[in-house]
Design brief:
Layout (H helix, E strand, L loop, with lengths): L45 H24 L3 E4 L5 H11 L4 E5 L5 E5 L5 E6 L2 E6 L4 H6 L21 H14 L7 E4 L7 H11 L4 E5 L4 E6 L5 E7 L5 E8 L10 H18 L1
Antiparallel strand pairs: 1-5, 2-3, 2-7, 3-4, 4-5, 6-10, 7-8, 8-9, 9-10
Helix pairs in contact: 1-2, 1-6, 4-5
């Protein structure tokens, strides 16, 4: 059955990774997206509109419920006819955050224009998930794509401050508990060499999740194989790195839809429904 959703998003799926399995990163965007309501034209599409509108109403209720209790809610799209899925995709659009989630199956997750409403696609998977972040992004984040080998990383001339940074990150990683405040190591403010970065990359490995966010400027987040450790990099409109950090946290705040976002999404979805009806 042909899906109406334009997923995986650009930069995901077949051809986006080289034969060795290395990530071919999506080109960073040049500007922040802002919410703009889109009211689809349903004239002559009444048969497709009914299931889509029913699901939109359920999504609004789910946003409200998830804002209240923090539990994610999922909606399987496979029972919907292609015309209804196309109308739903047109209404949801694409928001600020996109994710690659390695694993079986590999998943592409795209936030809709309604914060906290995510469209997930992969082999045998086509669903919408309402929540701060997709559950798989948390569950698979630090599953090793390249293992973290710590101080066993190969030393080379030019490695100066990396071992002390690694010691700090490992200590914070091992002591981290859910709900702890993030611990940030700002490489932009610390003296380091290129060899330091190469050594840290090998020492900390690479996890299974890559996130691109337009919410706070252009931001790339990479889960590392070391538990709770993320590489968080901000770029300007010229794609120049302006802030480079390691962050020890469950999930960087940049990628999360806040409770207020979910409440706002519930209201916005209902506004769209009213306009369509």
């Amino acid at each position: 059955m042909v899906s109406g959703f334009q997923l995986p998003p650009i930069g995901f799926g077949p051809g986006s990774q080289d034969p060795e399995g290395e990530v071919d990163y999506l080109a960073l965007p040049s500007g922040m997206r802002t919410y703009a309501p889109h009211i689809p034209d349903v004239d002559g599409r009444e048969d497709a509109a009914a299931p889509a509108l029913h699901l939109l109403a359920a999504l609004a209720d789910a946003c409200e419920a998830t804002a209240a209790d923090g539990r994610n809610r999922e909606f399987d799209l496979s029972p919907l006819p292609p015309e209804s899925r196309a109308l739903l995709a047109e209404t949801l659009g694409q928001g600020e955050v996109a994710m690659k989630i390695r694993g079986i199956p590999a998943i592409a997750a795209q936030e809709s224009v309604f914060a906290g409403v995510w469209v997930l696609a992969g082999a045998g998977v086509e669903k919408i998930e309402v929540g701060a972040v997709p559950m798989l992004a948390r569950a698979r984040a630090h599953v090793p794509h390249r293992p973290a080998i710590g101080a066993l990383a190969r030393k080379m001339p030019g490695v100066v401050n990396a071992p002390s940074l690694l010691s700090e990150l490992m200590s914070k990683s091992q002591a981290h508990h859910p709900g702890d405040a993030p611990h940030v190591v700002n490489l932009s403010l610390l003296p380091h060499t290129e060899e330091d970065l190469v050594w840290l990359d090998e020492a900390l490995g690479e996890g299974a999740v890559t996130i691109l966010s337009r919410g706070y400027g252009n931001c790339r987040l990479t889960a590392l194989a070391q538990a709770h450790v993320w590489r968080v990099q901000f770029f300007n409109s010229m794609d120049t790195l302006i802030l480079d950090t390691f962050e020890v946290t469950g999930m960087p705040e940049v990628a999360l839809a806040a409770t207020e976002d979910l409440e706002d999404s519930a209201g916005r979805i209902r506004e769209v429904l009213e306009a369509i009806r």
